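Margin note from the TA: students keep mixing up input and output lines. Inputs are the sequences; the output is the structure of the whole complex. Example:
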Amino acid sequence: MSSNKTMSFKKAHGKPLQTKALNEFSLTPQAKKIWDAIPAGFQMKLLNNVWCRTCSDVTSIGSVSGKVERGMLILKGICTRCGNTVARVIENE
Ligand SMILES: [Zn+2]
């Protein structure tokens, strides 16, 4: 009985919930600075307006990681519809 309990606990602990992963948002300090300067309403628009090549449609980006390259903020993550990798480039003036 007690061994069964341990097994189910291990199983539940091994894989994080998908919804939790989709909410992940990790930016480099440089990227965070640019991102924080963007109004919240526009941030949501950026995250919910990402072109996915696999879906051939505009979708939302999840599990986002961001960095700065050549003055541009680059957000990378996964399409919340199909799970494939998508990226969003935000040009910084
Ligand atoms: Zn997709």
